[in-house]
Each structure stands twice: as structure tokens, then as C-alpha cells.
Structure prediction request, 712 residues.
Amino acid sequence: MGVMTYLRERMGKIVAIVIGASLVAFIAGEVLRQGGSFFKGDNNEIGEVNGEKIAYDVFSKRLEQNTNQLKQQTGQANITAQFTSYLQENTWNQSVSQIILNKEIEKLGLTVSEDEVKAMISGNNPNPQIIQAFGDPRTGQLDRAKLNNFLNNLAAAKADDPMKVQWTDFVTGMIEAKKGEKYISLVTNGLYINALDAKDDYEAKNRLVNFKYVTLDYTSIPDNKVTLTDDDYKSYYDDHKSLFNNKQELRSFDYVSFNASASKEDSAAIKEQVDKLASSFKSSTNDSLFVQINAETKAPILFRKKGQLGDPKLDTVMFNAEKGFIYGPYLSNGSYKLAKLSDIKTTFDSVKTRHILIDPATTGGIDKAKAKADSIKKLIQGGKQFADLAATFSADKGSAAKGGDIPAFDINGAMGAGGGQIVAPYANAAFKGKKGDLVVVESQFGVHLIEIMDQKGSVKMAEVAIVDKPIVASSQTQTAAYSKAQAFLGQLSNGNFDAEVKKSGLVKKNAPDVTALSSILPGLDNAREVVRWAFKAEKGDFGNQVYVVGDQYVVPVLTDIKPKGTLPLEAVKKQIEPAVRNHVKAKMLIDKLQSAENGSSTIDQVAQKAGSKVVPIQNIVMANPVLPGTSVEYKLVGTIFGSKPNKLSKPIEGDHGVYVFSIDNFINPAPLANAVRERQQIGQALLQRSESQVFDALKDKANVKDYRSKFL
Prediction:
């Protein structure tokens, strides 16, 4: 309850806030103490930036902290493979950005003065992280009494006090973040939008064009009527080579999988196992212990309102049942479950209290703390004001500044809008007493003198104990699937993967363009082991073992390797084939439309000769180049806005076909009335893009070497 305890509870979140600060805003500062030097040698380097090494142990500690933060936020002990991949990537970006930004900041000599640090902590406009740590959750404002009390306690603490160490790291993180903000400000302050930029943007959004067009779609020529030559591929490849720059090595593999998920027999056996527990569960006199011994999920047994039991089935039966009632086995979220109504009662919906906390450590022990609480209780009963005594005697300075007030909470101690959790002894005392009572109770924080200020509402609450057993495959099921996979692997030799798949009646699946750090693939969750194999194998190799991926046994074969850099034509030939075919069709259709234009003076005549029709289009703007009923046609619409009315255009090769158009007229918008606002809007959009683009530019310029695939 004291602020030191509060900070100990929150410091993990405080540190995580600094680490999780937006990379886009360049305020991701180092918060963990680095301590120690980097290990030497490639085996302990997860990467390097411009020659500065990123040690695996340092990366691992940062990843662990980010992981713990996510667990705190989600309340989950285990995180999914998707979140694991996200955390690994985010932590890597933090490590790289820190090194890159520190070098840039060093070059410019950017610093944060002592006065700036003081302002960030206790100034008129404190750092948001300070408000997060020391703010009043009800108002969102900084609780200066709480902050000052913490700073006073910190000043009196020993140099090696863990809280002092954590606070130093916390402030260091804010300083690093502030340097990052200064750097990005220097960059963005150089951005400028002039009046011509504003005018062009305004017209692109508001200048209208009305026109007619004739089109010959690429689909009008059957694919089998088009023969593609090597020159066709090379011409297209040379014109679009910039599109084929591979920023990292990619690999593709085919695979077959053998299902090892639970069978019907496995499910029936688990249901029977749960069913056998019903009689002993019903007769149990200690439901919490029974759950701890027999359940897969060791969930605490709490009183809950209707709608909070986690399953509509339980809401239906438990609130109309007698104490000791057993429901199940029933199937829920992949598990068979038994539910027992341990208790049911009608109680208050919430209780509002205030308290005075006596710290035994400063009063000579628990007995003296209780005696002091009793003395204060008598003073209140004698007419002294609770709020005044809280301000004088309470060790919880945060609530003392508010007269001892604590946000309302339910029977389980959960607070409402303010969030947080009241400890069980405190909550139990508040619900057992009556409105107006003064109660002395002991908790792990010390001795509380509680005044029950209000008890609101009336709600029926059920305490339900649940025993669950997940439906998992038996060893027999897993062995059978593994044996099939092993037998298939035993039949493979160089080049016969597809033949063996067909012979065995299996379904071949494909994982295309996999990166070295991929883990989630089509049809495969958490496939890191398979990916590691793929990046060590040669093209045509098949797996040297059966890989276990979730409830599947996988046998892969490597089909393609795309190295980093500009990919050769052969590597992208299959990928570009549809575009090349359309390009060849475009040449044929252009010839046809050019013939139709010969001797034609109107677009109607062109349409008639080409065997097409005229399509009128109204009110198109350049900023939204979409043809109704078709799709985006950037080249066509861009050409239209650069042309003059009442003239037949040359054939234009578009994304969906070849076009000829004739402009009826342009409709110019009213003159730009507020150029300042237009410039501000463009500038804001440019600013948002620039924050991420600056980092991308610095990263592209830096020599970044990524060795993560060796470790993750």
C-alpha cells in the first residue's frame, strides 16, 4: 500500500514502458542496465551495426523483459508463437535503433541538461512515464504527493538499494528518449510545405475530369494464343529490375504432414477420466486443494457474478443450483471439465472504504502497530477527522493525500474504473462489516484501520470450482502418426519427393519465400525447427528427420533459394509470367487500337472499329484513380490529367487492358481559400511518414549484420 511497495509492484511496468516506447518516434531508450562487457567471438554475437556488436546475452535480457511486460499486460503465463515472433522482431529493432541513433546523436553532440531532467520528473509538464508511474488513475494527473514522498524515500535509501538502481535506469531511459526526440525534431523541423505544394495537393483532390474511354481487356485474348519468348521475359525484367531487389535471403520448401491430434478414442478416454472424478469431487471438503491436485488449470476459486463464470453453460445452471452441485463432464475450449458449486450468496456489489496504514517496521512490530491503530480508532470515535489523521499517521502517502480514500472494489478485491487489486484480508473485512464500521485488520502491507464508507447494490455471486483435462493425443496416436511419417521419410531419395507423395496418396503443401526468422507458416504454427533446417539445406535436399510442429509430424524438401540482392531473371520468371503475358497482349491490343484510330475523328468511331464500346466517366479526381466497375488505373488517370480536352489519345497500356480516351472537360475547384490549413494538413501527413522513413534511411545506410537465425 505504501508508495515504495507501489513502485516495486509497478517498476516492471515502468521499465517496460520505456523499452516499449515507439521506435517510429525514436524514443526507444535503453532502460535495462547493461552492466558487464560483451562476450567475444561470433558464437555470442546476435548481430552488429556499423561494427558495433550486439551480444546475445544483452539481447536475451531485453527480450525477456519485453516478454514479461507482455505477460503482465495480457495476464497470460504463456504467449503464442505469433507474439514470440513479434517480440523478437521488436527487440531486435530496439537494439539496432539504439546503436544507430546513439551514433547520430553523438555526432551532433545532443545532450539533456540537469534542468531538463528535473523538468521531466517534477516540472509543470512532466514526462508521460512519470505520470504513468505516479499519477492518479481517476484524474490522469500527476500525484505530486506520491512523487515527492518517493523521492524523499529514495534520497534516504542506501546506494545499493535495488529501488535506487531501478530509478537510475528509469531516469537514464527518459534521458535517452529525450535525446531521440531532439534528434527527430532536428530532422522534421527541416520539412517545409510551400504554397505551390498546397495548391497541387488541393487540385489533385478536388479538380474533376469528365471523359470517355474505349478499352480492350487483356482477357479478350486467350492465354493459349500468346507465346512468350526469352526476349519478352528479359525486356520486362530489365524494365522492372528494381522490383526484384531481395532485402534478405528467402527459401521455399514443400512438405507433407501427418496428423497427430487427438483421436475420437483419445477424447472418449479423457471424458471417462474426468467422469470418474465426479464422485470424489462432490464429496471433497477442500475444493481448492482438489482443483490444485486434479485440474490442468490451477485457477483460484473466486466469487463471481452471472456472466463472469467464463462459460454461458455455467451461468445457466449454477445460479439456480444448490451448494455442492456438480455439472459435467462438459466440453469447453478443447477440454473436458467438471464444475462444482462451492458456495453461493447474495452480497454487496461493491464497497467504498478509506484507510490508515500503520507500518510495523517503523512502529516496533506488529503488536505495537495494532495498538497504534486502536488508539487512532478511539480518536476517530471521539470526534477527530479521519482524513486529518490519515494525513498524519498513514504510511500509504498516496491515499493519505486524499483523506485515506481507496477506490471502490468488489468482493474479490477488484477495483472498478481505477484498476488495481485490494488484498484479500482488507476486502474480506470490508464486506463482513457494516457501513460506518471502523475495522482493524492485518495484511502483508501492515495494519489497516478501515472505515467502511458505503456498501452498494445487491448481487448473487457463485463460487465455482472447475477441474479440467485438455483433450490431447495419446502416446498410441502420436506413435502411429510418427511411424507413418518415418516410413515416408525412409522412402525418399534425391528427386523422388513428388513421386512418393503421389504414391502414398498424401497432400503436398508449400511454404514459399520463408525468411530465416519465420516461425508461422501456411498450415504450420511454430515451425522454427523446420525453418532452421531449410536455411542449412541445399536445393533439392529433404529433411534428415521427422519434425514435430504442434500436433503434426512434418517431412520437408527444399525447392528454392532466393539470395539477398537483385534476383536473377530465372529466380523470378514464374512470378512475373502473368505480367509478361499481359505486356505481350498489350502490344497486340495497341496495334488493334492504332488501326481503329486510323481515319477516326471521334472515340465512337474507334470503338466501332475495335469492336468495343464507349464508356463515359464522370467526376474522377487524380487523388483517387479508380474507374467505376474496374479498378485502380494509375497510368491511365495520370495521363488523362496531363492531356487536353476533345482530342483522341494514343493507346495507353493499363493494368487491366489497353485504353483510348477523349476528355470532355475539366471542372476546376473554387480557389484555395485557406492555404495555411492545407499546408498544415500536408505537413502533418509528411511528418508522420518522415518519422519512420528517417529510421529506415539510417538503417539502410548502416551496415547491419543479422545473425539471429543462429540463436532464435
